[in-house]
Amino acid sequence: MNTPTTDAPLLQVQDLRIAFDDKEVVHGISFQLGAGEKLALVGESGSGKSVTALSLLRLAAHARCQGCVLLRDTAPGAPLRDLLSLPERELQGLRGDDIAMIFQEPMTALNPLFTVGEQIVEVLQLKKGLSRQQAWPLAVKALADTGIPEPERRARSYPHQLSGGQRQRAMIAMALATEPRLLLADEPTTALDVTLRAQILDLLSELQKRTGMAVLLITHDLQMVRRFADRVAVMEKGVLVEQGAVNEVFSRPQHAYTRKLLDSLPRRDVLEADPADPAPAVVLQAEGLRVVYPVPLPGWRGWWQRGEFVAVQGASFELAQGRTLGVVGESGSGKSTLAQAVLGLLPSQGTLRFGEQAWQGVGTRNTRAHRALRRQVQVVFQDPFSSLSPRLTVEEIVGEGLLVHEPALSAEQRRARVAQALAEVGLGEVQFPGLLARYPHEFSGGQRQRLAIARALIVGPRLLVLDEPTSALDVSIQKQVLQLLQHLQREHGLSYLLITHDIAVIRAMAHEVLVMKDGAVVESGPVRQVLEHPQSDYTRTLVHAALD
User: Fold this and answer.
1) Measured in Å, how far apart are the chain's first and last C-alpha atoms?
2) Which of 168, 54, 187 lies closest to 110 in space, CA to CA?
3) What is the DSSP letter of 291?
4) Residues 67, 135: one domain?
5) Cβ atoms within 10 A of the Cβ of 130, count?
6) In a domain, 452, yes or no
């Protein structure tokens, strides 16, 4: 469809309907976006906001789209182009050039076989016709613009060598390298801590002023919407229920669903310590915990010697039964490395004890003692999509631990235990007929995280390592998962080592907190003392950034 116009918005979406097979998931939504404007599309997981963004560029596999998605051309007076009816070759020319996209899950979106610098260079070569020599410094600059430390070194790193936040910034650098007219940003700051989130928002605003770029922001972070967007559109179950200026919608929401989202901040509901009670047993203890990575030295010395990168510098802490120790800090501060050392997945120096036993996970994986301790220490990862095998059914995923730790169980006994674990996390056959035979892609992000929690719980652990367990979830689903974790802690006396960059989650969940920066613990203590009366300038910066 071509419509001549002179003053049309940059993007017009008219009566967009999206269906998979016979099931319609987006029901006739309409909105528009002007040049230089910032529109946020918000809603719960499964509301249709991400599939809407993907369908604008026909990137949603097997989706059947109806309606119009009209893009204004750069030439004055040129007709609008309907992206849904453009030939694939013409649309391919727009992707990554006029319209760029930041995907939600950088680990699955980045190619693991190439360095992040090479992937940005490839975009500049394809879209701008530059040589590799011309594109490389621009790729390094794009990384530097996102605030990533040591951009030259990070450009030569592979995705698995970067932290979650650094991978997300690499994705942002790749999208912005071509200076697109329209940026589709699907949860662009999900993996970033509060201070870097502010930097990215400032960067996007600066690029907008310079280039007139428009942004369609897909997010569950209402604080981010309040700070960044001009207008907001709220989706529920594929329907656009409310849209308008951010200040107006947030101060006077008209729809009940919008009011529900605005009331979805994490709430504290944990068992507090009673001074009259005896001290609980210590589940995990670390003294002088240190994690070191070997790194090549520059020049000829690298042929014979290796340098050191100290990722965790002498961390000491205790975690009692039924309590939560929160570990907070910026991306790259060493939080996840600390978690991997606790899990026995990385070699560490210093003392690490689980109960009364020394915990030396690396190098003793095949011993009976290791298997017994491994059962007591389980993990829930940050990204529920990539942490669950797409080739296994729910029954196989959740029951996998029983095959290792209780091999004598029959198939029927194992199936009953799986059903019990799923019921504990709020998943059952009533809501999901044929639940045990389903695959992870058939569930929303929050539901997948419940599957991951069930997989960890089924072997009866004493300690759960929670590595950013809600950072990929929207606010209402985040609240539900936190309430579930709080309930499970009360019911089973579980201890949690909670890794997060979200101060609100720390306030809701933690009893004690460690604040980490550049691998070192800069402050620790009871959560209220640390967050309400921080002694470190760095802690004050984190707390103030979370309140903005």
Assistant:
1) 44
2) 168
3) E
4) no
5) 16
6) no
Average the pLDDT over 180-200 and give the result: 78
- Is position 460 within any domain? no
The position carrying tokens 């428009």 is 214
Place 522 in a pLDDT band, splitting at 50, 70 and 90: very high
**pLDDT tens digits along 201-243:** 777 787 777 778 899 999 877 888 988 899 999 999 999 999 9
Phi-psi region of 129 (alpha: psi -120 to 50; beta: other; left: phi over 0): left
Percent of the chain with pLDDT over 90: 55
- Tokens 């045990």 found at: 436
What does the DSSP assignment read for 74-136?
Answer: SSTTPEEEETTTS-HHHHHHHBTTTEEEE-S-HHHHS-TTS-HHHHHHHHHHHHH---HHHHH
CA–chain centroid gap for 177, Å, is: 22
| Average pLDDT, integer, range 56-81 | 86
pLDDT at 361 exceeding the cut of 60 = no
- Considering the domain boundaries, does residue 425 fall inside one? no
Same domain for 116 and 87, yes or no, is no
Looking at the fold, whether 92 and 118 belong to one and the same domain comes out as no
pLDDT the model gives residue 314: 92
| In-domain check, residue 155 | yes
421-460 b/e with 16+ CB inside 10 Å = b?
Answer: bbebbbbeeeeeeebbebebeebbbbbbbbbbbbbbbbbe
d(CA 454, CA 435) in angstroms, rounded, equals: 13
**In which region does residue 525 sit, left (phi positive, over 0), alpha (psi from -120 to 50) or beta (all else)?**
left
Token pair 């605003």 is at which residue? 205
Domain count, the chain: 3
Domain that residue 321 falls in: 282-387+465-547
